[in-house]
Amino acid sequence: MKLVLLSGGSGKRLWPLSNDVRSKQFLKLIRNGESEPESMVQRVWRQLAANQCLDMAYISTSQSQVDLIYNQLGPNVPLILEPQKRDTFPAIALIASYLHSVEHLGPDEVVTVMPVDSFVEDHFFQKLKSLERVIMESKAELALMGVAPTYPSTKYGYIIPVQKKSGPQSSLQVERFTEKPSVEAANRLLAQGALWNCGVFAFRLGYLLGELQKRKLPVDYDELAARYLELPKISFDYEIVEKARHVVVVPYEGHWKDLGTWNTLTEEMSDSSVGQVHLVESTNTHVINELDLPIVTIGVSDVVVAASPDGILVAAKDKSHVVKDIANDWSRRPMFEERRWGWYHVLQFQKMNDKVGVLTKQLHLHAGKNLSYQYHHFRSEVWMIVEGEGDFVLNDRLRRVKPGDVVEIPVGAKHAIKAVSDLDIIEVQMGSKLVEDDIVRLGMSWHDIMEMVREA
Prior knowledge:
Helix content: 10-25%
Radius of gyration: 24 Å
Strand order of the largest sheet: 20-21-22-29-24-27
Low-confidence stretches: none
Structural class: alpha+beta
Strand content: 25-35%
Number of strands: 30
Shape: globular
CATH architecture of the largest domain: Alpha-Beta Complex
Largest sheet: 6 strands, antiparallel
């Protein structure tokens, strides 16, 4: 069996900490068994290792998340890249084509897909591994996992089996699905033995390839990636699951939660405050502060405050999910991003005239990490070394830089830097197009960059 974790959307319900690049699964707001902060993707990857599942695991993601995944999980994570963020049907179609044409797996290979940010106990993964046996024994087109509900939720979809579960290991025939019912309808569903749909799907690879062929879509990865924008932007549930003739569900009785809102996330946080925070006579209140300014709350209850370079949220916990509708209307560039080499924080952007802008950033490179060897078409840069030392390359010439040094990088000049120790840089960009896309990379690893310098 192959297991693919879907690392997709931006998690706008957790604005302002999450955005199109730093999605909710990368926020380090929960703690592991050693009380160290970890993200949701780090938690699930750790659980996969503990349950001997890493050798069958992949992550499906977009190019914008690659640096964050490598930064948090290491550079050897198997990735299946989407050309563009869409919905779960295009993503899973691409997964099937990759496993078929790149990994050369056969039609009877069982593939299980699940969200990367499921907050579950370890025995969830033992139940998940049983899906391979269930799909083979039942001859079903799809096998799902359904969570035994703990209350009549209106936030989740429901799976309604033909009959109530007869035992902890049984799989049940699925009768129908219901999306986000009212409280009254949810209570009726619970009485019928309905289960929460936790977004876990298992299928034989050949079945899904056949579904693609029915839709006249290519099963070759490169061909499907080239036509990716032609695929309907629709969920896998609507396009495949609800149209399938034979679907079974495996019940799971254990802790499961979607940490997709500030309300649910703060329920699992060990700390009521992060960053420069003073909580005074405040109950059931969480404050997460990524700014250099202190935040003080006095005498408030049931509130979440989240502050980052992208904005500040103050919300009643039970209404915090509404922020998604507001944040969806904003198209500002992220002001803070984590990368495989460290992070950067946009300090200021100023438009000088119609053609020229100035952007100021703080860059932090972890010791031993490096920026790629690159150049820009539309901007020049000036770097001031604030702290630490680094090896700096400009047009194939190498030199050591230290605090107080200022280097000028003209438009089109090739440049890279490696942090000898933790390195902080203030970068000032000036040009007509100050976007991350204006980067032409010539080499990624420092070894390859040094080879280019020696050959020059």
